[in-house]
Amino acid sequence: MAETENPVTRISDHSYNHLIFGYPLMELTGNITFGEATYLCLKGELPNEKELKMLEVLLTCGISGGGLGDAQVQTARCIATANRDDPIAAIGGAMLAYGSTTGSPAFTAQFVEDAYAFMKKEGLGKEDTAKRVVEDTRKQGKRVPGLGHRWYPTGDPRAIRIRECAELYGFVGEKTLLYDAISAEVSRVSRRPMPPNIDGAFAVAGLELGFSPLILGPLFALGLLPGNIAQVEEEIKEHESRSIRRFIDDRINWQYMGPSTRHLPKEKIKVPLVKVKLEE
Amino acid sequence: MAETENPVTRISDHSYNHLIFGYPLMELTGNITFGEATYLCLKGELPNEKELKMLEVLLTCGISGGGLGDAQVQTARCIATANRDDPIAAIGGAMLAYGSTTGSPAFTAQFVEDAYAFMKKEGLGKEDTAKRVVEDTRKQGKRVPGLGHRWYPTGDPRAIRIRECAELYGFVGEKTLLYDAISAEVSRVSRRPMPPNIDGAFAVAGLELGFSPLILGPLFALGLLPGNIAQVEEEIKEHESRSIRRFIDDRINWQYMGPSTRHLPKEKIKVPLVKVKLEE
Amino acid sequence: MAETENPVTRISDHSYNHLIFGYPLMELTGNITFGEATYLCLKGELPNEKELKMLEVLLTCGISGGGLGDAQVQTARCIATANRDDPIAAIGGAMLAYGSTTGSPAFTAQFVEDAYAFMKKEGLGKEDTAKRVVEDTRKQGKRVPGLGHRWYPTGDPRAIRIRECAELYGFVGEKTLLYDAISAEVSRVSRRPMPPNIDGAFAVAGLELGFSPLILGPLFALGLLPGNIAQVEEEIKEHESRSIRRFIDDRINWQYMGPSTRHLPKEKIKVPLVKVKLEE
Amino acid sequence: MAETENPVTRISDHSYNHLIFGYPLMELTGNITFGEATYLCLKGELPNEKELKMLEVLLTCGISGGGLGDAQVQTARCIATANRDDPIAAIGGAMLAYGSTTGSPAFTAQFVEDAYAFMKKEGLGKEDTAKRVVEDTRKQGKRVPGLGHRWYPTGDPRAIRIRECAELYGFVGEKTLLYDAISAEVSRVSRRPMPPNIDGAFAVAGLELGFSPLILGPLFALGLLPGNIAQVEEEIKEHESRSIRRFIDDRINWQYMGPSTRHLPKEKIKVPLVKVKLEE
Known about the structure:
The structure is a homotetramer. By secondary structure, chain A is mainly α.
């Protein structure tokens, strides 16, 4: 392994004093909040007051908001009902249920970053950029991420709340305005309002705070974590049955559409069933 | 870090030839089956014919048998519906849904190992050992793992099938017979038949094959993996909606029993809602 | 599925207003901090000032303190170097690296809860309880969790810091004092100082805050999450090589001690190597 | 939730007889091998002899071949050293360490599928298609996946072995030959041999077997699982220390390059350090 492939890290110095970006961990503990700690880890500096408040908005906009129907809560509950002995497994597993279908500010953020880079490179205005990227996206048979919500046709309240806080704290910048133009263009071509949903609003606010798209998925997941922990505790404590809970219920949830009963060819049956009887 | 703390490994030599317990990987590929490879990894030697057949029984006794209601399938589907972009996340997450409630041969195997060690140490017979460990377990308010199944009051067919194959291939040894005695004793004191279920039968067969209890959970999970992969493929391909699928459905699955609507104290509302209107 | 098996939840009402323990989510966003949100999710009520400050101490005592040598950071880096495309996988995987060896306040908390229940049931004093539980633990060949640290023989600074904050905010109660007595007893019988380490101090402070042992592992993990996210970002951005980074390095980390080269028996070689040549 | 959104499944019927694509599970157990079970789950039909042999080649080409330096083994070991209590966590976590950098037949398979669809649509020959897709890929600043290996400049033996078996069993079809042409074109433009590596050879053989690209990552992971289980067992049994093993070792592996020691501004220090002394 070549010398240059060794990892270097700017995050923490593993010595007695445990420096976190230069600050002794012990000096931080008891003097900063978890919100400040999060900002420090992700940006390398402590936040000013407005940066901190904006980050807290992002961290609290999704706390268990979707309840039992959330992808993450569903997953946490499914693991917890089986693996009651190690709650950390349910928490870790639930962290995996974020992607382009839900909990996906990363995808929108990358989309906006790319559109913004294109706008700068081409020297276009916001509206022209929006036209071009929306057209381009539709040509590829894709959709612009972060817009519209099935349950909130006139606007996701979480997105509206993020935006009103962003205005208050001064985090409506060029990327947000470009995304506004993109949202307007998508609304125009699809002939119905397509305002940002929670993913879209989180994504642009995250970019305005200076975060990289790649950490926005994990940051969103961080905000949902306390709710997931509560759900896992509830599942383990409340469900005393010896069997797992079956959330996917055949009364409403699914049906079998595979082949009907068939049997192995005779010559494959080397070990016939003796004590087990198949029902016919 | 002291020298003695460096890991040593007997499993594989990472060189051009990739030795697996001494065998060149390239000689194995194309000449052994995956069942043989599994045995080699877990025991350090290739299996004889009966050992291989018995291992194949264990690896095929649970293939997607529980369908959509399985803890693992539920989990895989919940992750896949959210994170369609990385199917490996759904597969990895589903691996976490094994524990003492389901998919748990490890717990039974450890129980039998302990009972067996106790029998040998005390020089007791099987029936006396069974009486003692069952009494002891009940005193601690616990239950003997691996016995009984809610859906199969007279016997889990998968357990019966494992046992009939174990008899055929010569894997009914002292640990199996001790567990039979324990099953009989539990049936006696609980006044209903408590035969081994799939976990119990898998556990003792795994011990007779010489596996350590700690690998029996992962080995069981290995057997369910192909079914889980199929479920993830089906979920990603068949569900075209832009939203996640909500498996936990409020029509039948749950209800909210928390506090009714309340509001933050006035002094806490520093940023009042302007554009968002709460429904009353 | 019986009616009584349906999950009930006190956490969140999945309606337009998204009640979190009764509070409209939109009223919380922008008006509470993430520390408050965490407390609300885990206790069902908002914290008073001292409860909040104490929780913030717990959430900030471990932020990336162990650096690259942490179990969680190691895991996150190992996954990120392979799976650069889905950072959420590295974050979810790192959540799994908490157990009785590290990051384990859950084990200590359960130990203290059991000792405390025993003390109350038997009507003993702290010192007598400590004697009894320490003796009992040693008889079982186990060790009392949460005491001592290889690198800090005279005291883990993170534990000392947690304690001095607990004194300041009024969270030194009976369980903490009982654990003090247990620590003194372990020190006496092992003839060297065995003060609480970060796990032990976190565990008793968590109990004094009224948290259940089963959520303390996940709560500890929550505190380490921002550091892990930073590590994953650094790993993905800094390591441009097309191959994975090999952290387990044979220059110092391991050696092969398995069988030397051997070959399959002739009759097993049905598909001889033609284009692949084994080195001798 | 609309009726049409209910999942349907063709995989398994969750009834007493547990049909797997129509076959009673109990008839399968004891009569088919795990390789056959895997094929059945993934294709819906039992394999013929050649299909089975080819699948076994894929499942055995990577068994613990990379040893301790593998991304998956590294991850499994890192989790196991921390979380000794739940080996399933280490196994599940290791499943996440597959991506475009390693263990990635899915990426190559998708690339080949797209190239093949382009060839058919445009009515081109293999060489012309190869020219076009390689040029296109390079223009986008990307590289063709699955070609070349740092350690095996003249050819990855695992890829060569997969190919010689594919020839023997009749699985060298149009997609394989197209990928050959692509490999030749990449070699030409990069002026060094760029033959398929294990990912590339696995990918095209998987396509020839009729598997969808999206399951090839999980299928590859399945083949590595037995080796990972063995590694986890070894880690848990052999490492008796009370502390975690630190695989990322500062003697060779990393260095801190962040800010040097700095302190919080005076006004931020509300809770000064009393019992904790920072080293200067």
